[in-house]
Design goal:
The chain is an all-alpha fold. The protein is about 75% helix and about 0% strand. One of its GO terms (molecular function) is transmembrane transporter activity.
């Protein structure tokens, strides 16, 4: 894709706009991933009188609550006042709320700052996905979606590795300084994203797209539970096997993000070659095989290899679901439709500790990975038989690259 091309009519600063759109979701990836390497140390810090592990997982995932609620609202506000203004407010709030953890001592204040961060992330990513919908389909839009997910996965990998290093050297708070990377894009966005007039529509019902596209949203939530297994549950699996270094845990978990970046960058080709059904099959099989591998593996290297298998599916989830949504949502509700997709994705992230946690308590963390792996292989079998989730997009390819 030529970032500097203006043939699509999207403006003279199309290359800069593309950079901001690709970087927006990458910043949102920092919302959970900057906190991930700090979880074991944070759990020990807050272990007095409470379940430290659960609190640490909530600190990582509670922004998803705000994002779930605010992403569709951000879509409606963007339709009324314009996407540039919503984007700017989101970026400013992201930097302020993200770095605030460096100075907070109260657990309550920490949770509040994380909720504000989630709301900011919802505004940023809703606007980015909606603006990508302005690009022409048939390859251009799909490649940009792939680059967005690839940048997000690469950011996750760097955040996990750098965050682990910072935790080992300077304590659990230091990875939260990574949110300051939003400043350059906050300064760049006003000059490359044009002010958009509000979109005329007869209604601003948040849930209008849900009536016709709910199977895609439901599938997105289920896939995201699997996508976050390496980053949310992986550090505890490694700790159970005696791998206590946050830097090593972050590096092992980053194997998933590295492969996800490569898979996402290849999304245009993979989607064209396999089609929607094939991409969904590949995703669920990789989640199933990878989770089973992590449950049976011993040692950081083998767990990292199994995590990398899960990364193949992780790199395809968001781009596949976003392509399905954009191909169905009319312009008048595109911002709302993408906002609901983000809600579905982050709902899966938030549900991960609550779905996996009881299994971990009853059977152990290794058995929890085994159960998740078996469930995803069953889902792959259902998709293969065409009996689950497939009807609304039967026969349609996810990508026309």
């Amino acid at each position: 894709m030529s970032m500097g091309s203006t043939s699509d009519g999207l403006g003279e600063n199309n290359w800069a706009k593309s950079i901001v759109l690709v970087s927006g979701p990458a910043l949102v990836t920092l919302v959970p991933m900057a906190a991930a390497p700090a979880m074991p140390a944070m759990a020990a810090h807050f272990a007095h009188g409470t379940d430290g592990a659960l609190f640490a997982q909530l600190v990582m995932t509670v922004p998803a609550v705000a994002l779930i609620l605010c992403a569709p609202l951000a879509g409606i506000v963007a339709e009324i006042v314009g996407r540039r203004l919503v984007m700017m407010v989101g970026l400013l709030s992201f930097v302020l709320a993200g770095t605030a953890v460096l100075f907070l001592d109260s657990p309550t204040a920490l949770i509040v700052s994380r909720l504000l961060l989630g709301a900011a992330g919802g505004a940023i990513q809703t606007c980015c996905l909606s603006l990508v919908g302005d690009y022409p389909t048939g390859g251009h839009r799909e490649r940009l979606l792939g680059f967005m997910v690839a940048a997000s996965s690469a950011t996750a990998m760097v955040a996990l590795m750098a965050g682990g290093h910072l935790v080992d050297r300077a304590g659990w708070r230091t990875p939260f300084a990574l949110y300051a990377f939003g400043v350059p894009f906050l300064l760049m966005a006003p000059f490359c994203i044009k002010a958009h007039k509000h979109i005329a529509t007869s209604e601003h019902n948040i849930f209008s797209p849900f009536r016709t596209m709910w199977p895609i949203y439901l599938l997105a939530s289920a896939l995201t539970i699997g996508m976050f297994m390496p980053s949310i549950q992986g550090p505890f699996l490694l700790q159970e096997q005696g791998v206590g270094s946050a830097e090593v845990q972050g590096t092992v978990t980053a194997a998933c993000a590295l492969v996800a970046a490569l898979a996402a960058a290849s999304f245009g080709f993979i989607g064209r070659f396999l089609g929607s059904r094939g991409v969904l099959m590949l995703t669920t099989v990789c989640f199933g095989v990878g989770a089973l591998g992590m449950s049976l593996a011993h040692g950081a290297f083998l767990i990292g290899c199994a995590s990398a298998v899960m990364g193949i599916g992780a790199g395809l989830v968001e781009a596949t679901c976003a392509t399905m949504i954009m191909s169905r949502a009319p312009l008048s509700m595109r911002s709302r439709a993408t906002g609901l997709l983000l809600s579905a994705i982050f709902l899966g992230q938030f549900l991960n500790p609550w779905v996996v946690g009881p299994i971990r308590v009853l059977c152990g963390i290794d058995k929890a990975f085994m159960v998740v792996g078996i469930l995803f292989l069953c889902l792959a079998g259902m998709i293969l038989m065409g009996r689950t989730f497939w009807g609304p997009w039967r026969g349609e390819r996810a990508v026309r690259a």
